[in-house]
From TrEMBL:
It is found in: Cytoplasm. PROSITE patterns: OMPR_PHOB, RESPONSE_REGULATORY. The keyword Cytoplasm applies. One of its GO terms (biological process) is monoatomic ion transmembrane transport. This is Transcriptional regulatory protein KdpE.
């Protein structure tokens, strides 16, 4: 069973999420503050985290950073904060998706399922591919990236984005295609997600992130990976 960690200080939202998730055969743990959430995550190893940013003891972005220090678990932010800057800050810290309150339960559950799918290994022999560049190596079978002899820690979403681009080496991948392949079919206009995640990949993998050699932007169209 998929284990979900719900982190929110609003009892009615926690109760609604727990009821709906358990009805769909998820195992659910709940925390009402950041410190408890980090302890629960370490003890219970959830498969996905649903996180409110407005917690009583710390900002949710701090919780994201705390989790990203040791785990790649998908993180779905659920927050009343609507500004683009706040969404980008959460995504930049390592969140995988962002849903604003008030929210529809069906949409939230669909995004949660998509986040879990992105973290699952892709079956099939075609994954036995290693792509070498002068700066780093991508092992599609092992879902690993090595740079300078050391493994690079990527979140599930960063990995999925990298995987789509690498499998289309040299070809332009449109913004819409990337959004739908990485986040799901209901996505197509959230181009700020792509900007944030491409910046993260460049920071982690490019020798000079400000002048990328491998992750190329085609303005207004999409992105291309070059070896």
């Amino acid at each position: 069973m998929t284990r979900v960690l719900v982190i929110d200080d609003e009892p009615q939202i926690v109760r609604a999420l727990v009821i709906n998730l358990k009805a769909r055969h998820y195992e659910v743990d709940a925390a009402h503050d950041g410190a408890t959430a980090l302890q629960l995550a370490a003890a219970r190893h959830p498969d996905v985290v649903v996180l409110d940013l407005g917690l009583p003891d710390m900002d949710g972005v701090e919780v994201i950073r705390g989790l990203r220090g040791w785990t790649r678990v998908p993180i779905l932010v659920l927050s009343a904060r609507h500004s683009s800057d706040e969404k980008v800050e959460a995504l930049d810290a390592g969140a995988d998706d962002y849903v604003t309150k008030p929210f529809g339960m069906d949409e939230l559950l669909a995004r949660l399922r998509a986040a879990v799918r992105r973290a699952e290994p892709v079956p099939g022999g075609e994954d036995e591919v290693v792509v070498d560049t002068p700066e780093f190596t991508v092992d599609l079978a092992a879902k690993k990236v090595n740079r300078g002899g050391r493994d690079v820690r990527l979140t599930p979403t960063e990995w999925h984005l990298l995987e789509v681009l690498v499998r289309n080496t040299g070809r332009l991948v449109s913004q819409k295609q990337l959004l739908q392949e990485v986040w799901g079919p209901s996505y197509g206009t959230e181009t700020n997600y792509l900007r944030v995640y491409m910046a993260q990949l460049r920071r982690k993998l490019e020798a000079d992130p400000a002048h990328p050699r491998h992750f190329i932007t085609e303005p207004g169209m999409g992105y291309r990976f070059e070896k």
